[in-house]
Write a structure and sequence with these properties.
This protein is an all-alpha fold. Helix content is 83%, strand content 0%. Helix 1 runs antiparallel to helix 2. The radius of gyration is 19 Å and the shape is elongated.
């Protein structure tokens, strides 16, 4: 189940990254923003499920198996809060842009800096979220497979 969910989240993050990287064609700003918004929707649901349901269970397992990883678990929790914060901000900016886009459609050039910032921040979020998933898998694997030496 965890693997299926992680794969769904990874796929959704990939779709979001692709939609952000798609160039804005003159006259298609509204369509571009709608595509980004549509790609962000599944990320919203999957990210919240990951942070609120899956990750706490993973962290509990890590702590049960390897309490020495308390620092890593705290970093995962902090990183998850950061993911949610970044994504909430990204969604707000997408909504603002979707309201502005119809009025600016003939002159998308006036929004170049705003679009670039949205794309850069969106891709930074995707990278951060992907990094969180890799870290969680690593620490969970380490908790179960770490060589702790000989025990008397």
């Amino acid at each position: 189940m965890r693997t299926d969910h992680a794969q769904e989240l990874e796929a959704a993050l990939g779709e979001l990254a692709t939609s952000l990287q798609k160039p804005v064609v003159s006259g298609d700003l509204v369509e571009w923003v709608a595509g980004v918004r549509a790609a962000a929707q599944p990320v919203y649901e999957l990210l919240h499920r990951q942070v609120e349901i899956v990750r706490p269970a993973d962290c509990a397992q890590i702590m049960t198996e390897d309490p020495e990883q308390a620092r890593n678990v705290q970093q995962l929790k902090d990183g998850d809060r950061e993911s949610l914060s970044q994504f909430t901000e990204l969604l707000a900016r997408i909504d603002q842009l979707s309201q502005k886009a119809p009025r600016r459609e003939p002159d998308e050039g006036s929004m170049t800096a705003e679009l670039k910032a949205l794309v850069d921040d969106g891709l930074a979020f995707v990278l951060h979220a992907q990094k969180q998933e890799v870290a969680a898998r690593t620490w969970l694997h380490e908790a179960f497979n770490r060589d702790r030496g000989t025990v008397d």
